[in-house]
Each structure stands twice: as structure tokens, then as C-alpha cells.
Amino acid sequence: MSRIDLHLHTTHSDGSLPPVQVVLLAQKARVTALAITDHDITSGIPEAMTAGAALGVEVIPGVEISSFDGQNELHILGYCMDWKDEQFNRRLATLRQSRHRRNPLIIERLRAEGLDVTYGEVKTLAGTEAVGRPHIAQLLMQKKYVNSAKEAFDRYLAEGKPAYVARELPPPSEAIDWIKNAGGVAVLAHPTWAKKSEGDLRVCVTGLKDAGLGGIEVHYSTHTKSQTSTYLNLARELGLLITGGSDFHGLTKPDIAVGTGRGGLTVNPDLLDPLKNAAARV
Ligand code: AMP
Ligand code: ZN
Ligand code: FE
Ligand code: FE
């Protein structure tokens, strides 16, 4: 069965494989169209497009922006925007700067825990401006302080753990505005991560729709059947687009595969045209 995958990370942010390799894995998984949605950066898109043209896989411009609604972190995906737009890229650059302000504080805390790590080592390993906690997790794996990225998050990096430091994040309405101003469609990523009750989520998404949200990521690697149907009903009720993707990262999420997630994911290619049409109307 053919499928699409609209949520993929590469070495341009915190994924462990370069765009070309991700497109190759997509082709093997019979993915007909994909979006690279690196955190706060668009630099992986042209490489993916070149690879996609060579391998016969359609590549849609994408991005993922973390935001904070006052209670929870919400990730906003952007699709089909003009990814070369100067103002859009300047705005993303300010988000990457907030990463560089936070990350050294995480490193200080790890050092206080007795771990021999420096931010220089993290930046070298990352090889990109969009440095994230998964890069720090990779360094801890390399140095044998932990056996997996999951262990790095569970012991040190996750919220509530000793090396957790919050990042300054824009409100979701701002992330949505940036994407729309660049001609794209904004989509709420993995609603399950929002950690809200069904009622609170409905209120939240209704507000986001008023702020310009265009869709919900209904299909996602770790969504249960019941979560998927809840989000599907919410999208239908509010007249929002339905999208889906794996959130493939490579090494830091070794159980998630391109196209198929944990094995059961299939995002229907029919979801793509409505998304493109919505972007054309922005
Ligand atoms: P950051 O953007 O630097 O705050 O890092 C957040 C990213 O870390 C998320 O987008 C996930 O990709 C990843 N992440 C968060 N929690 C975990 C976890 N428990 N295990 C592996 N990766 C995680
Ligand atoms: Zn990530
Ligand atoms: Fe996310
Ligand atoms: Fe993601």
C-alpha cells in the first residue's frame, strides 16, 4: 500500500540521518510524498527535494516550531510555506538562538551531576544551528553515560529531571502567524503530547483555529486507535485538515521507522491534496 509521511527529522535538526538517507528510506517504505519537518530550520529542504526528484518521491516543504500556551508545550507544524522567505527564516533563527541560550545551562547541570560534557562537544556532534536535547542525549550515549536516548531523557533531560531547563518559546498563535505569513498551513503536531484532557484539548484547538490553525496531526506513530479517532472527530467537528506522520528521528527514536512508525502507521496519500489546496488559498 502506498502512503505518505508528513513528519520527518534529519541531521539539519535533531535527526541522525541526512535528508538524502531519509528520502531513500521513504522510497523503500513506499512513501509517495513526504515532508521534512526539522525543528526551527528549513535548510534540509533543498537536499530532500533534489533526492526526491531523483528517487521519484514528492517532497513538501515543512517545519516544526515548538510553542508554549501558558500550560503546555505545543508543536506547530508548517507545510507548503515559501521556505526561502527571508522574514520567516529570520524568525526561525531567533528560535535557534534561544536553543543556544538554554543548552549551555543544561550542560552546566549535567556537569553538576558529575558528567564530563561540554557544549562545544554537543555543537560539534550536532553540526547544525538547530541544536536540541536529542543531540545532548547522543553525546551522553557516545560517552557511555547512558545506553539509549530514552535513558538520557528519563534520567537527565526530560521535564522534572535534574538537567531540565525550559526554553523561551513563542505562543502558538505566533508560530501559526509566521507560517501563514510565509504562505503555509499550520497544523497541531501530535496532540497527545499536549497532555490535555479531551475537553481542554477541544477548547485549546478551537482557540488555535481562531488564530489560524489549519489542521491536526491525527495519524502519528504513538497514537492509539482511540486517540486517533478522538483527534479525527475533533478535526471533522472543527472543519480542520487531517495530516499524519511518523516523527522519524533515527538514532534517538530507534523504534520509529519512516512511513510506518512503530509498524502500524499508514497515512493515506489522499490527505495531501487538501493540504496543498489550503496553502494555495492562504
Ligand atoms: P528540544 O527541542 O531541544 O527541547 O528537544 C525536544 C525534542 O526531544 C523533541 O522534539 C523530541 O524529538 C525529543 N524527545 C523528547 N522527549 C524524548 C524522549 N523521552 N526520548 C527521546 N527523545 C525525546
Ligand atoms: Zn526532534
Ligand atoms: Fe514534535
Ligand atoms: Fe517532530
Layout of secondary structure:
Elements: E1 3-8, H1 19-28, E2 31-36, H2 45-55, E3 58-68, E4 73-79, H3 86-112, H4 119-126, H5 133-142, H6 149-157, H7 172-181, E5 185-188, H8 198-210, E6 215-220, H9 225-238, E7 241-245, H10 272-281
The protein binds adenosine monophosphate, zinc ion and fe (iii) ion (2 copies).
Write structural notes for this entry:
Helix 1 packs parallel to helix 2 (45-55), helix 4 crosses helix 5 and helix 5 (133-142) packs across helix 6 (149-157). Strands 1-2-3-4-5-6-7 form a 7-stranded mixed sheet. The mean pLDDT is 97. The protein starts with a strand and ends with a helix. Helix 1 links the parallel strand 1 and strand 2 (31-36). By secondary structure, the protein is α/β, with parallel strands linked by helices. The chain has helices at residues 19-28, 45-55, 86-112, 119-126, 133-142, 149-157, 172-181, 198-210, 225-238, 272-281; strands at 3-8, 31-36, 58-68, 73-79, 185-188, 215-220, 241-245. The chain contains 10 helices and 7 strands. It has 2 domains: 3-88 and 172-281, Metal-dependent hydrolases (TIM Barrel); 92-157, Orthogonal Bundle (DNA polymerase, domain 1). Residues 7, 9, 37, 64, 247 line the site of one fe (iii) ion.
- CATH fold assignment of the largest domain: TIM Barrel
Low-confidence stretches: none
- In spatial order, strands of the major sheet run 1-2-3-4-5-6-7
Major sheet characteristics: 7 strands, mixed
Strand and helix order: EHEHEEHHHHHEHEHEH
- Find the structural class using helix and strand composition: alpha/beta
CATH homologous superfamily placement of the largest domain: Metal-dependent hydrolases
Proportion of residues in helical segments: 40-55%
CATH class of the largest domain: Alpha Beta
Q: Give the overall shape, derived from the CA principal axes.
A: globular
Beta-strand percentage? Answer: 15-25%
Number of strands: 7
How many separate domains?
2
- From the alpha carbons, calculate the radius of gyration and give it in angstroms: 18 Å
**Can you give the mean pLDDT?**
97
Question: Helix tally?
Answer: 10
